[in-house]
Every structure is written in C-alpha cells, then in structure tokens.
Amino acid sequence: MCIAEDDLYETAIEIISEILGNYSKFLLPGDFQILFSLLNSPWAQERYERLLQGDFDFDSLQFGMLIVAFGDANTQDLTTNIGNGSQYEQFLPILCGLLSAEGYAVQEDKIFVPALEFWTTYVETVLDGSYDDEEDKEKWLPTAQSYIFQALERCMRKIQFPPASVFNSWDSVDRTGFKDARRDFSDLIQQFYLVTGIEIMDFFIRYADQAISSRNWGELEVAWFVILWLCDSIAEHNQRDEYLGRVLNASVLELVTNATTNLPTRAKRTFLELVKAYSDYFVANTENLPAVLNIVFSATSSPSLASLASHSISKLCSECRSVLLPELGAFLQQYNNITTTSSLDGVVKEGVIEGIAALIQAIPDDQSKIVPLNQLLDFVEKDVQHCLQLSLQTHSNGSLGNGSNHDNQADNPAVTIGLIALKCLEGMAKGSQVPADMPVDLEKSDDDQTSNFWTEGEGAHLQLRIVTMLHRVIEALSVHGEIVEASCQVLRKGFQESDPGPFVLPPEVAAQIILTSNSQTPRLGFVIRTASNLIYTQKGTKIDSVAGSLLQWVSQLLHTQEGTNNNLLFNHILTS
User: Fold this and answer.
1) 3-state DSSP call for residue 36?
2) 282: exposed, middle or buried (C-beta count within 10 Å: 0-12, 13-18, 19+)?
3) Of 28, 254, 405, 417, whose CA is between 20 and 30 Å from 160?
4) What one-character-per-residue DSSP string does 167-221 give?
5) Phi, psi for 273 (deg, rounded to 5)
6) In this predicted model, what pLDDT tens digit does every residue of 255-287 receive, in sequence order?
7) First-residue to last-residue Cα distance in the chain
8) Rounded mean pLDDT of 505-513?
C-alpha cells in the first residue's frame, strides 16, 4: 500500500523487491493479487511508460526492478498457467516490453540486463516443463514459445552494436558489459534450442533475409552472431547443412564480396567467425568454397580483420584439406603474392602457413610432400635471415649486452621477426599433424617398423633445415624468454605425433636443442617441462640414448644453483 505514496515509495519498493526476490513464500495468493492490481493501475502504467521512454533515474529503475522481481517470483505460473487470457499471460507483454526501452543496452538502458536475466530464467523453466506429459504441455507450451520469440526479436534489436564512434566513446566497463549482454543472450538462445530443436534456425535465417532486403547491416550482424553461437548445438543434426545452405549461399557471399554494399567491419568480422565455426560444412558443400576462400584471403589485407581471417583460412584448410589439395599450388602462389605486396602480421603468416601445411599433409605419399614443404620453409627462412641481420645490427650498436630487459621484445625488432619465424614453424608443425579424426590402427604395436623417410631418407634434409633454423635463432636470441618458449613449442608439436613426419625429430636431435639451455636461460621451467614431454611421449627404447644426457643436464642445473634459493627450479623439476 505504501509503494504508491511518494514519500514512502523508495523504501517500500525496495522492501517488496527484496521479498519477491528472496522470500516470495512469505506472500500469500491475496498479496500477489494486490501486486497484480497495483502493476496494472494507471499509476504503474505511467511509470512503465516513463521507463520505456528512457527514464532511468533511480526511482524509475527501481520500478523496473520491481516488475522483474515480480516476474521471477511467478515464473512457474507465467509458464504453465497461461492461455485463455489469464492474468499471468497479460503480464508477459509487460516483461517483454522491458527489453525494448529507449537507449543503448547497458550504457544507457539499465533495465535491459535484468530483463534479459528474467527471460533466461523463463526459458529454463519452459525447458523443464517441456518434459511434462504431452497433453499437459500442449495447453501452455505454444503460448510460452510465442512470447519467447517476441522477446528474442526485441533482444536482437537491443544487442546490435552502435556505430564504432559511439561504442569507442564508452568507458571500458560499459563496453565489456555490452559484450557480456550479447553472450548472455547467446546462452538464452542455446537453452531455447533445447525446446524448439533446429527449427529455431528458421527464425534467425528469416531475420537475416529481412535484414539483407532492408540493407540493415546491424540486424544482419546479430543474425549471423546468433547462428554462430548455435554451432555446437546443431553440429550433429542431420538437417544442419540444409539450414546452413540458406545462410552461406552464393547471394550472401556476393553481398560480402561486393564493395558497393559497404558492409561494416563488425559484420564482416562476424561473418568470418561464422565461416570458421562452420568450416566443416564446406567439406560436403564445395560449390561455394572458392568464393569463401577469396573472401577470407582478401580480409588478410585489413588490419582489423587479418588475424581472424588467417585463423579462418587455417580452419578451412584443415577441415577441407582433401578437397583443396588440387589447389595447393594456387595457395602457395597466393601466399607468395600477399607476402610480396604487403607486410603481414606474424599471426596472419602463422595461420596461413598452418593452413597450407594442412593441405600438404593430405598428400598421400611422403616423397611428394618434400617440394611444397621446402617452399614453405623458404618463406620462413627469409624471416630467419632478416632476424639474424637485425640481431647483428643490434649487437654492433651495443644495445644488447647487459641483459637488463630480456623479455621486452617491443624495443628489439630482431626478437619480433625471430618470433614470427618460430611461430610460422609452429604453424607448419600444427598443420602437418595427422587429423585427430583419422582412424587408429589398434593392432599396431610399439615394435612395428616405422618409416625412416624423415630421419634417414630424403626427408632428412628437410628436417635438417628445420633444426638449423631453430639452432640459429636460439643461438642469436636465447637471452629472450619469448624466443626460448616459442622454440620449445615447435619441438612439442612434434612430440605429440605418433607417426613419422617432418617435425617429428629423432629424440637425440630434439635433446640437442634442449641441452643448449643453461642456468641463465630465461623461462627455464618451460624448457625442463619440454624435456619431460620428450621423455614420456617416446615409445620403446628410443629415448634410452638421451635420457642419461637429460638427467645429467638437470643435475648440473641443480648443482649450479647450489647454495642459492633454487626452490623454483626444484619445483619445476618435480612437477615435470
């Protein structure tokens, strides 16, 4: 009764909201009826309209929180006691309306997130109720779903990114909060998928088609964003490709490619994420794969899209390696073109090289892999040579020597280029790995003879190139922790393989690289753990020849540290 009194409003509404949120069992059915009457009164309607028009002053926001709290306390009735114009059904449009208040979500609209949380709870309640008897749920489930779809459409308008100039003017808290709200909405979508099944895709695809027709790129980006987040949910559904065919078709690809559409960077970014998430779709649906690859390769020239584009390329190549194998020469030429005409970010180089290496891995015989792998190593070797030249210049200028700032690469271009070279080697190693979904020969024993093509045959020269590059970069820049760690990462990729390959080095060769480290080497713990990886990933007696050397190396490290505080080193050895 006190809520409608101006002098008592603030205290009364806070108490009632607290009771609704945490102690709703205190309230009797008659109390809820009084609140229903209050929230449907002209007084409440006037406050509700003010809130939707963008009045987020404290007392107005409190009123919105009261509505949310009332909805939370009645979620079960709002789910199963709807239909035939019940008072619960009449209250759902009010809760739905809270999702469309004026202003940008989070930064201006302060009621959107609490309202979104209510609808997330509501969807969870609907999901629980959907397991009820078929006859019972038919009475309420269609009505509940129709209101959820209304809520989804309002949310999709609210989570559209504002113009970049506006978004960038927000403080970090509001920017993070807005992105969190988008993720919360995606969680709601994934929950609702469990109720509707893959048919929910039709709603978002139609939403995307309408956005394309009206050239509303904000709405299109949101539709792609939601479809992206359904990736795991629909992964195993037998109709997935049928629905994706309506999303990744030729007309959509033409839209993304056409410069006259002026598709915003944000939308292009979400599209690249979409391609990456559904890259396996193109294995069986190859007709649009060339157009998609052209899009992602073109995106590598955009600073804001380059990193994501390179990851998309590596994912597409990994998933579609058998399909794309005939285009290996074109990929190598394309990479040569973009490295010649522009200065690529290290992440981009790593991603593209990883993708090309995945295509090479699909070549059925090892002999045919040598030429293209050497071509890739030619690209990496250019960076190694550049790194060594810069390192010599740095030494001759006297800017290195006291070791006071070993881990700061920003002031040392040699370290930057060296890291790019090592990351590219790591990318090659990742791409060269046998796919995880390849069949495993359960009858193969550890004593079975394996091919020595890469260690003693024609592939040994290629391995020598890899090892030489590692040694040269380490020798020049081993005082920098990033270089040490990146070198170890290259070795570890080879340790993970059970079959011979270009990066599966003989144990004694890998051990030689590890043994170059000493007590002064930065990130020594990472090196010790790498040595441990080498030992426990080897089979049979192959490791016996180097185990003694590694043990002696560790003993010398401890001896060198004798009399000093070597607890950290000792812990590294114990945990390894």
Assistant:
1) helix
2) buried
3) 254
4) HHHS-HHHHHHHHHHHHHHHHHHHHHHHHHGGGHHHHHHHHHHHHHHHT-HHHHH
5) -60, -40
6) 999 988 889 999 999 999 999 999 999 999 999
7) 68
8) 94
- The CA distance from 432 to 334, in Å, is 19
pLDDT tens digits along 365-383: 999 999 999 999 999 999 9
Residue 268 φ then ψ, to 5°:
-60, -40
Contact predicate 116/184, CB 8 Å: yes
Q: Where do runs of H (alpha helix) occur along 397-502?
A: 413-431, 460-477, 481-495
Q: Is 294 exposed, middle or buried, given 0-12, 13-18 or 19+ CB atoms closer than 10 A?
A: middle
Share of the chain above pLDDT 90, in %: 75
- The answer to whether 116 touches 160, Cβ cutoff 8 Å, is no
Beta-carbon contacts of residue 86 (< 8 Å; ≥ 6 apart): none
Place of tokens 């479809």: 227
Rounded to whole angstroms, the Cα distance separating 510 from 246 reads 49
pLDDT of 134 higher than 90: no
Range of lowest pLDDT (362-376, 449-463, 474-488, 515-529): 449-463
User: Measured between alpha carbons, how far is 391 from 400 in angstroms, rounded to an integer?
Assistant: 9
CB within 8 Å of 232: residues ≥ 6 apart:
190
DSSP annotation string for 67-119: HHHHHHHTHHHHHHS-STT-HHHHHHHHHHHGGG-SS-BTTTBSSHHHHHHHH
436 pLDDT above the threshold of 80: no
Q: What is the dihedral of CA 441, 443, 447, 449, to 10 degrees?
A: -50
Summarize the confidence of residues 291-317 as an average pLDDT: 93
**Cα 282 to Cα 295: distance, rounded to the nearest angstrom:** 14
Structure tokens at 30: 């008659």
Residue 467: Cβ within 10 Å count? 18
- Can you give the pTM of this predicted structure? 0.87
Mean pLDDT of the chain: 90
For tokens 């449907």, the residue is: 40
pLDDT value for 404: 42
With CA atoms as reference, report the closest residue to 526 among 478, 470, 467.
478
Torsion 321-322-325-326 (CA) sign: negative
Residue 442 in tokens: 């359960």
**Does the CA dihedral 16-20-22-28 come out positive or negative?**
positive
